[in-house]
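Let us practice reading a record.
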Amino acid sequence: LDADNYETDPCLKEIRRAENYSWMDIVTIHKDKLPNYEEKIKTFYEEHLHLDDEIRYILEGSGYFDVRDKDDKWIRISMEKGDMITLPAGIYHRFTLDENNYVKAMRLFVGEPVWTAYNRPADDLPARKQYMKFLAEEA
């Protein structure tokens, strides 16, 4: 993807159409740009899940998404400018900045955005049960 020209990037436009990502915004995570920065950073790093997919497209900067594998071990995913990730509903994850302490990311949603994070443990939620069923079927 062309992060320098995300407003006009035909590949991004096609992804948004194909996946029905009808809503988006841009968030900048930096101490001078994000209100309640320290609190937000701690919240992002708390292990949690969402009831919907989490889609992020890195426009500037870099950071890490940590996700749990099927054996409940952490996998660290390095994200930098031009990278897009979709974390499925029900997967435990967290986000942290790297040593640059800066990222600007597009947040994409199907329909209206839902920001609710469910901190671990949240194994009884339907999204988590569905995700675990998916993992079992893949094995």
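A brief commentary: The beta strands are 23-29, 48-49, 54-68, 74-80, 84-87, 93-97, 103-109, 118-119.
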